[in-house]
Amino acid sequence: MLNTKKFVDQMINEGYSHLCVVPCSFAKHIINEAINNPQIEYIPCASEAIACSVAAGLKISGKSPIVIIQSSGITNMGSCITSLLNPYSITLPIITSWRTYKEGDSEIQHKHLAIELPKLIEAYGYNHVILNQENIYKTIEQINLCNSSKTIAILKKDTFSKIELQDSHKLNLSDYPKRSEYLKYLNKIYKNSDNIFIGTTGNTAREMYSFMNKTKNFYMVGNMGGALSLGLGMSKAGKSVYVLGGDAEFVMHMGGLTTAGRYKDINLNYILFDNEQNKSTGGQNSYQSHIDYKSIVKASGFNVQKKSITSLNEFKEFIKTTKEGLNFAHVKCDTDEVTPRPPVDVVAINKI
Ligand SMILES: Cc1ncc(C[n+]2csc(CCOP(=O)(O)OP(=O)(O)O)c2C)c(N)n1
User: Fold this and answer.
1) What domains are there in the chain, each with its CATH number?
2) When you count CB atoms within 10 A of the terminal residue's CB, does the N or C end of the chain come out lower?
3) Rounded CA separation 261/232 (Å)
């Protein structure tokens, strides 16, 4: 295992200036150190494609960025790699985690790339190196190789030692109900109904499994950013749909809002549970307090609940008064304790 603090200090000595990131729990400690350490700038990115483009802009302007992502997101980055980095000969270190998969595991989003990641990197026209886990100087040499050649670095689990976030970077959401309280209410109101509840990648789907056992649920444990569009397809097919989303998921493919916004004669309700963080990859702050969610969604064509919901009573009122159509509510919530993942036989159901 590498000493994370020493590794980041060494990267700074080498001149690396920015970390462009979509979080993965494998990279939690290096991300924590980058957030804690003012000598390297942490740039949280809405998607892997964005992380890659921002890093390319930094690199061609004289800075030394590093990109860190999860293997599930390297496909999002494909266009940026093949049609920006490659043709413009821009090289920079991209570190992708390599999520493994055990038969029967419900993290089915990782099943394909758990085997094929190196072949995909090769298909992009890149070599790969597995990051050394023992010797910081060798690992830095590998990062430097990625900085100067078409090589992508692969990060395995438990490469970096533990780093806690400094208190000043920790969130306090204790003014808001936990998401489970809202979910339990939905479970009570909609038990045995025909409404379909889509839970997004991240903790929402997991918590739905624990707290909504009487509703018709689709656990979308992958395709991060695509829940609203999946819901649009279902509602265009005549279903009544609730998309229960997270704040990091909201921004990943935000264009889905503008596509959905065209259609008013459907029954699609998008409830954004905003816990200000990427809870399921380690609780990293999503740094999105600059975003006015309600205005963005309203401008995309949705009916929007005027005030952000901050209590269970307000939530009950919203659920009771919402009419059929294309609706959105921004709901502030606190985090729950860790709940189990829905098992694979529940997740893999593909008919509703
Ligand atoms: C394309 C892609 N990129 C990254 C990830 C890793 N990932 C899984 S969940 C998640 C964060 C989800 O945060 P949010 O939507 O706010 O929900 P929360 O877990 O906080 O409830 C991330 C980054 C992924 N699964 N897929």
Assistant:
1) 4-155 (3.40.50.970), 179-347 (3.40.50.970)
2) N
3) 10
For residue 157, what pLDDT is reported? 96
Written as six digits, the tokens of 320 are 């009771």
Ligand 1 within 6 A of CB of 65:
no
Tens-place pLDDT, residues 203-250: 999 999 999 999 999 999 999 999 999 999 999 999 999 999 999 999
Dihedral of alpha carbons 246, 252, 341, 167, sign: negative
Closest residue to atom 8 of ligand 1, CA basis: 202
Q: How far apart are CA 295 and CA 254, in angstroms?
A: 13
Q: Are 297 and 57 in contact (CB under 8 A)?
A: no
Residue-level pLDDT at 338? 86
What is the chain's mean pLDDT, rounded? 96
Q: Which contiguous run of DSSP H or E holds residue 327?
A: strand 326-332
pLDDT at 231: 98
C-alpha closest to that of 169 among 271, 270, 37: 37
- Residue for token digits 């829940």? 227
Closest residue by Cα to residue 194 from 270, 265, 267: 267
| Closest ligand 1 atom, residue 222 Cα | 25
| Ligand 1 probe mutation, 280, 287, 288, 335, most atoms within 8 A of CB | 280
Distance of CA 123 from the midpoint of ligand 1 (Å):
26
Chunked in runs of 10, what are the mean pLDDT values of the chain (352 residues)? Answer: 97 98 97 96 98 98 98 97 98 97 90 97 98 97 98 97 94 97 98 97 93 96 96 98 98 98 97 96 95 98 98 98 97 93 89 82
Pairing of strands 240-246, 277-278: unpaired
Alpha helices in 39-178 (DSSP H): 48-60, 78-80, 113-123, 136-148
- Whose tokens are 């704040």? That residue is 247
